[in-house]
């Protein structure tokens, strides 16, 4: 998911949540939709920051392994559905 589409996603989820509340859907559920959208946006912003630090490092026997930033970036991409 691109960074440009996240604000659009947030706007869509807010619209669906508002419509659901008007249709009698529990307000707590609507709040959860908004929180999920906000968390996705925050994760995407964190990923953009962390990507500058992602790199590989030499392991004990000279093999390449991801540094902590790259491991965290991978976890975020999985959470966002960008990786399996």
What report would you give on this structure?
- With 84 residues, this protein is mostly helical.
- It has three helices and two strands, in the order ααββα.
- A two-stranded antiparallel ribbon has the order 1-2.
- Helix 1 (5-22) runs antiparallel to helix 2.
- The longest helix has 24 residues, at 27-50.
- The protein is elongated.
- The mean pLDDT is 82.
Short description:
Helix content is 64%, strand content 7%. It contains three helices and two strands; from the N terminus they run ααββα. A hairpin with a 5-residue loop joins strand 1 and strand 2.
The fraction of residues in strands falls at 5-15%
Number of strands: 2
Radius of gyration: 18 Å
Order of helices and strands: HHEEH
Uncertain residue ranges: none
What is the general shape?
elongated
Helix content: 55-70%
Q: Specify the structural class.
A: mainly alpha
End-to-end Cα distance? 13 Å
Q: What do the pLDDT scores average to?
A: 82
Number of helices: 3
Task: Describe the largest sheet.
Answer: 2 strands, antiparallel
Q: Can you list the strand order of the major beta sheet?
A: 1-2
Throw out a few tags for this protein.
mainly alpha; 84 residues
Question: Which helices and strands, and how do they pair?
Answer:
Blueprint (H helix, E strand, L loop, with lengths): L4 H18 L4 H24 L5 E3 L5 E3 L1 H12 L5
Antiparallel strand pairs: 1-2
């Amino acid at each position: 998911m691109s960074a440009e589409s996240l604000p659009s996603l947030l706007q869509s989820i807010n619209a669906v949540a508002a419509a659901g509340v008007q249709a009698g859907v529990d307000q707590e559920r609507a709040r959860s939709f908004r929180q999920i959208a906000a968390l996705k946006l925050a994760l995407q912003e964190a990923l953009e920051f962390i990507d500058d630090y992602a790199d590989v490092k030499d392991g004990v026997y000279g093999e390449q392994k991801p540094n902590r930033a790259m491991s965290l970036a991978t976890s975020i991409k999985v959470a966002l559905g960008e990786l399996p």
